[in-house]
Amino acid sequence: MAEGRTALGPGGALAAALGLMFAVAPSLSVAQTLHRSPQAREALVQLAYDLGEAHALHRLCAGPTDATWYTRMQQLQAQEAADEGFRRRLVESFNGGFEAGSSEFPACTPQSRAAERAVAARGAALAQQLAADTPTTP
Questions:
Q1: Which residues of the chain carry a pLDDT beneath 70?
Q2: Residues with Cβ < 8 Å from 124, sequence gap 6 or more?
Q3: Rounded to 10 degrees, what is the CA torsion of 117, 16, 123, 57?
Q4: How far apart are CA 48 and CA 5, in angstroms?
Q5: Stated pTM of the model
Q6: Backbone phi, psi, residue 63, to 5°
Q7: Cα–Cα–Cα angle for 57, 60, 65, nearest 5°?
Q8: Nearest to 57 by CA among 126, 110, 6, 93
Q9: CA–CA separation, 81 vs 18, rounded Å?
Q10: Are 135 and 22 in contact (CB under 8 A)?
Q11: pLDDT at 13
Q12: What is each CA distance from 123 to 18, 106, 136, in whole angstroms?
């Protein structure tokens, strides 16, 4: 196995944590997702940013048609963006992360791969935190 990689791959921890988050929350209704704590909603906005940044960094090496992290963002929106205002915040945050990741590295390098792993680790921690945070019922 290459140095710095886990058995899950560079974004595997984030993918696994998001999978856990989506598995824990599918029984929540749209109305229930509106009642996440303000801290959890901010964590979702940060997670969207991390997904955007990971998307930009991953595409450097995987190619411009790769949609790995974009697909996860779509899942996040479907699960958590119960109102249009919050959906817009998530999209703006994802786009901001994408811009940051795109401007940081012009090409696939060991440094861009390391940056993707760092972003994935940060996002995985947020996703695990969110999976443990059960929204309050109305």
A1: 1-34, 134-138
A2: 13, 14, 16, 17, 18
A3: 40
A4: 23
A5: 0.78
A6: 110, 155
A7: 105
A8: 110
A9: 15
A10: no
A11: 55
A12: 9, 22, 23
